[in-house]
Amino acid sequence: MTEPVLHGYFRSTASYRVRIALHLKGVAYADAFRHLRKGEQRAPDYLALNPQGLVPTLAIDGAVLTQSLAICEYLDETVPDPGLLPGDPIRRARVRAAAQLIACDIHPVQNLRVLDRLRGLGLAEDQVTGWARQVIEEGLDAFDRLIADEAGPYCFGAQATLADICLVPQLVNARRFGVALRWPRLAAVEQACLALEAFAKAAPQNQPDAE
């Protein structure tokens, strides 16, 4: 079987999510580095794989998969242990909601493509980063409330789920934008996750393309 290839960028939070999932599942893969700040995600060969020109893209099992949550769920379906989603339908929906809060509502509006458009509209850099910071803070406020009644050490109990896979990279991004991490519960989840080898190996600073 051909080794999977992950097209990503070390600092991309969406790529970070997929790296965590791959490591949790014990799936070995090869890295294909796409330097976002140099525009390598818009190269014709990459657009032939991913017409959106976004990372990550995972070439696996003879297919090309895009969108980090779709990739993570594919991995969960094909390598069931450890599970990223609970078996109970209600619990599964809640984990997905938490994951999507970050992946669909926080992350897209403060990623490089959107921030560059704001700069192109003439906003000063402090306005751009301030806007991104506000989006992150409001989103993490909601995420914190969403899991407030859940037992730890992870977002939804004793096992890391898709929600944790989304949260940890987002907290890294929050720090990059100068967000004061005022959520003790989220900090505790992050600490528990980073004690797991899969999360530590997937961290941006531990990637071969980190710069």
SSE topology sketch:
Blueprint: E1 5-8, H1 13-25, E2 30-33, H2 44-49, E3 57-60, E4 63-66, H3 68-78, H4 89-106, H5 112-120, H6 125-146, H7 162-176, H8 184-194, H9 197-202
Parallel strand pairs: 1-2
Antiparallel strand pairs: 1-3, 3-4
Model description:
There is one protein chain. With 211 residues, the chain is an alpha+beta fold. Helix content is 53%, strand content 8%. The chain has helices at 13-25, 44-49, 68-78, 89-106, 112-120, 125-146, 162-176, 184-194, 197-202; strands spanning 5-8, 30-33, 57-60, 63-66. The protein has a four-stranded mixed β-sheet, covered by helices on one side.
Short description:
This protein is an alpha+beta fold. It has helices spanning 13-25, 44-49, 68-78, 89-106, 112-120, 125-146, 162-176, 184-194, 197-202; strands at 5-8, 30-33, 57-60, 63-66.
How confident is the prediction overall: mean pLDDT? 95
- The radius of gyration over CA amounts to 17 Å
Query: Helix/strand-derived class?
Result: alpha+beta
Q: Give the CA-based shape.
A: globular
Number of helices: 9
Q: Can you list the strand order of the major beta sheet? A: 2-1-3-4
The stretches of 5 or more residues where confidence is low (pLDDT under 50) are none
Tell me roughly what share of residues is in helical segments: 40-55%
List the main descriptive attributes of the protein structure presented here.
211 residues, alpha+beta, four-stranded mixed beta sheet, 8% strand
